[in-house]
TrEMBL record:
UniProt xrefs under Pfam families: UPF0014
Record keywords: Membrane, Transmembrane, Transmembrane helix
Record lineage: Bacteria, Pseudomonadati, Pseudomonadota, Gammaproteobacteria, Enterobacterales
Protein name from the UniProt record: ABC-type uncharacterized transport system, permease component
GO cellular component terms, semicolon-separated: plasma membrane
Record carries keyword Cell inner membrane: no
Organism: Providencia rettgeri
Membership in a protein family: Belongs to the UPF0014 family.
Transmembrane segments annotated in the record for this chain: 6-24, 36-58, 64-81, 93-117, 123-145, 189-207, 219-241
Topology with respect to the bilayer: Multi-pass membrane protein
The UniProt record lists the keyword Transmembrane helix: yes
Length: 259
């Protein structure tokens, strides 16, 4: 079967699609031209660096290098998830623990069940998918928690004044925040194969793999995304709600009013 390739010339011509986006932004006065150019240049540089690093790691095929890159992905995912926390300071460690725990548990299950082999060629791409999805879910969880604690201050204060503990007073907020943060992952699972043909499945088919075999891999990916996102957001939610209270179990109103 013909091996799909893309020439440098074809890649250069594909930049016309970016120019279309810039033209639309300029015509509609969206003021996104600089952001589009910056994000495009950054994506090119990051992907080229990642390509050379992955090529080296795949050739070396060393366990420690593989684990180091997995941790590197988790560290960066946590850093980006932290940026969504507008209401809480010093949340990076929480994001790192939540994302790393979910990612490593999922990888452990996949490796022990022989769904994937412990090789950089399989572990690293899978890590990128599950850590990236966990990053979005945890970031949404932080944002949802902040918004709900801010908008429901009165109800929480009333529950605390009646003798409720912070955990009891926060239970509904934690539950709703976790549910809301999982909606994108759940909706993606609902529409996979009907609306979208995800990257892994499309890539395998593009590379000449039998479509049914590609479907099996995509089903596995769907399962692991749901599992990782659920575990990571639960950890993030229950580790974060305490930061909205002081040591005397009083609600930190000044933190919630911060924009």
């Amino acid at each position: 079967m013909h091996q799909p390739t893309i020439s440098n010339e074809s890649l250069t011509f594909s930049i016309l699609l970016v120019l279309v986006a810039i033209f639309i932004s300029h015509k509609e006065k969206l003021s996104l031209e600089k952001d589009i150019i910056w994000s495009t240049c950054r994506a090119i540089i990051q992907l080229l660096i990642a390509g050379y690093i992955l090529k080296y790691i795949f050739n070396v095929d060393h366990e420690l290098l593989t684990i180091a890159l997995v941790m590197f992905i988790c560290v960066n995912a946590a850093w980006n998830a932290k940026k969504r926390s507008k209401y809480i300071d010093k949340i990076y460690v929480t994001a790192l623990i939540a994302i790393t725990s979910g990612t490593f548990l999922t990888l452990l299950i996949l490796i022990l069940t022989n769904a994937i082999a412990f090789t950089p060629m399989q572990v690293i791409p899978i890590t990128g998918m599950i850590a990236g999805n966990a990053m979005i879910a945890v970031g949404l969880c932080f944002n949802n928690l902040g918004q709900r604690f801010s908008s429901q201050q009165q109800q929480i204060q009333e529950m605390l004044s009646l003798g409720a503990t912070p955990k009891v007073a926060s239970a509904a907020i934690i539950r709703d925040s976790i549910r809301a943060s999982l909606i994108p992952t759940v909706d993606s699972a609902k529409t996979v194969g009907i609306v979208s043909l995800p990257g892994m499945m499309s890539g395998l088919i593009f590379a000449g793999v039998d479509p049914l075999q590609a479907v099996k891999y995509q089903i596995m990916v769907t399962f692991m995304l749901l599992g990782t996102a659920s575990l990571s957001t639960i950890l993030a939610g229950y580790m974060t709600y305490t930061k909205f209270y002081n040591q005397r179990h009083q609600l930190l109103v000044t933190t919630l009013n911060k924009q």
